[in-house]
Amino acid sequence: MSPAEPRRSDPASPRAPAGDALGALLAALTLALGIALQLLACLLTLRSLPDPSAQWLSGMPVDAGAAAAAAEANTRVFALCLLVQLLAALFAATGSARLLPRRLRPVTWRGLLLLGFLDFAVPLGGVLCTLGAFVLSRVLPANRASLAVNTVEEPEFAEYLIGSVSYGRGARLKAELRNAEASVDFRMTALLAMQSLPVRTVSPILQEMLADPLDDIRLLAYGSLESKEKALTQRITAERAVLDAPGGAARSGVERARSNKVLAELYGELIYQQLVTGDVYDNAISQAERYAEAALALIPEDAALWRLRGRLALLRRDLDAADAMLQRAIDCGFPRDRLLPYLAEAAYWRRDFPRVRSLLGAMDRHAVTPTLQAALDFWQPAATAAGAPRV
């Protein structure tokens, strides 16, 4: 700021209150003029002639010439009253709007027009309503919440998702597919486009589309689910044929362990991709458990199989077995950080919330996915606030 600027602004500051006072005085005079014109309009109505319409409707004799003269005179008085009331509303709205506090003044011409319409439709009452609202705003306590200003940290950027995420594509396709008002061709195109999404994401939506009222949508959803399930069941059938082939007992333990492990993983994939429901779902869990147990009898130190059995136990809500098998997987060399969410889930089903918080707090926040990060933020709010990066 230059030295000359304060000298230019100082002389203007004493004139600001004077200008406000002059504006308030003019507004008061304008409002008074509007009220006076409204009173004049009320007095003009008293100059109207008696209307003989009631006498004519009741069948009493009426002088036609007198009735016509009364109607003409009353029409002129009515038009004059409307004109005076219009001018009164203009002056009253302008004056009352200027006298209101700044936070209550109309900020657009629409607000001023609404205030003028109130003054025009309700003579004197519009002004009383406006001034009454001002008085109430001064008498009643102000409803102002004092909100603390907090600093919002910038979200962390997950660089490893750049090449694998198509932003908004899945949600848009789901919305298009579930829109029953869209055309059949449009929904069919959305259903076909979903084939490129992960099976675990698509399967629940396809299951939902099996109850769609349109035959084409139902058939296409059923065909998509069947093709994905058939691809896994064919591999299961081929692997079981190798395992149950004549002379299979003569195969080496390594080969039989590999076949059992592959079958356990294939049944686990059916469950993970949500391709089976109901009794077939329960059968897939039992078959995966059976083949995993058979494989572990031959290779008891396979950490991946112990992890699979732990996840199956969680699905059955056998929480003690899940804890034991997941701990065995950790003992066999499986990374503990990757099993902590499953251990926390078992603790959650037990309602052991302190253990849930302890297990999730032991995880490395820099190595979790954004989906799991939301769970960590919920269970560890204090740690999130303390460990948030400052930008």
UniProtKB/TrEMBL annotation:
Q: Which branch of life, at top level?
A: Bacteria
| TM annotation in the entry | 21-46, 77-100, 112-136
What keywords is this UniProt entry annotated with? Membrane, Transmembrane, Transmembrane helix
List, alphabetically, the InterPro entries matched. Answer: TPR-like_helical_dom_sf (IPR011990)
Decide whether keyword Magnesium is in the record: no
Q: What is this protein called?
A: Polysaccharide transport system component transmembrane protein
- Organism of origin is Burkholderia gladioli
